[in-house]
Predict the structure.
Amino acid sequence: MRILLAGIETPLAKIFIKNYKAKHGMVALDPTKADFSRLEPIKDVFNSYRFDAVIYFASSISKELSLFKNLQYACILQGITRLVTVFEYNDKLDSESAFDCIVPDLIEKDKISVGLKFYNIYGKGEKNSIVAKQIAAAKKGKIDMPKDRLIPMTYVEDAAMVLYLALESDLLKGNYDIANPKPEKLSAIASGIKKHLPDIKVCVKDKVAEECEFLQSMNLDKFTQEVPKFKFTTLANSIKGMLETSQPNAKK
């Protein structure tokens, strides 16, 4: 399978390429070489290679409605049956983003698209994730939280595997909310870090956990029903792996 990749600046894209480049040929759009918000440069790329699938990593730095529409049109024109668009959300949905408002509807209407909406991705390379920020604070001796929160989370390695399944399986169609079915409290993340770094201090001023707004609208059942055997990495195991990488002297 030959895959065209757009928006490869994200940590998830880099993990996906690292984990699966040996299994599939991959070609990345280079935004420095052409303006891919225009259709003609996209058509030139599609005419240069025969692709079996396209992945668009639509992060905040590469989220363009025109690019999605051009990729969608070129896929249909070339008879490509799989266009996967990756959305990444941290604290809240961007209700003012035309991309986030329009693209999910376009995905539902065509017969080739899959939309994967990942929430609070954390792990290798995700320096701005909640877990990474707590680990950084722990290295300074203290994790200080004004208020506890309950949030959905996705380990980056799990996200890469879900993306691979979206390419390999014809089960996935339409839009999916993706996160570990078990949401976690910020205080639980801190406790997991403290287990390996027992000398740090954890301070939570307001211990009544409020729910992240995502939890009110997410539908995780659609994915778990269609891929019931998929196992998400536990918070404890992912924190252990992250600390062993960043903090060699952490308690095991």
About this structure: The two ends are 40 Å apart (CA to CA). The chain has one domain: 2-246.
